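Suppose a colleague, Dr. K., hands you the sequence of a protein chain of 135 amino acids and asks what its three-dimensional shape might be. Before reaching for any lab equipment, you can write down a predicted structure in token form. Begin with the sequence itself:
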Amino acid sequence: MSETRTTALKWGTIVAALLSFAIIGLVAVYRPAHEQALINLLLGEIGALAIGHTAYRISSGKQASPLGAGAAVFCGLVLAGTPFVFANFDPFLTIQLVCGLVLAVAGLGALAERYVGGEEGRRTGAERIASRSGN
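The predicted structure, expressed as tokens, is then:
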């Protein structure tokens, strides 16, 4: 993985994790419907954990976990889609739409880098360790 792409992906996933925490906190600022509050709390928390784990792995030089990145994409798409179900003009739901899309794009970027990225990204952990040890 090139250094520029790694840095951009690392910071993108960190921003997505922070925005996922913001989605959780929006329930305290705005008073949404009960269903919307549950969606934000549950999927925002799962999305924050998933993209945070992905950001940690990318920052430490490892491949992104496909399960974590996939969970972030799923949570982001569901969070971004709920403004169309409830009401897309409310400021709360517009903020949620943007934050959900950022979460989904960061997860897709991590998945793309894992599967389409450079040769280093496609090697297994055992292969990377063996090459570092000189075998």
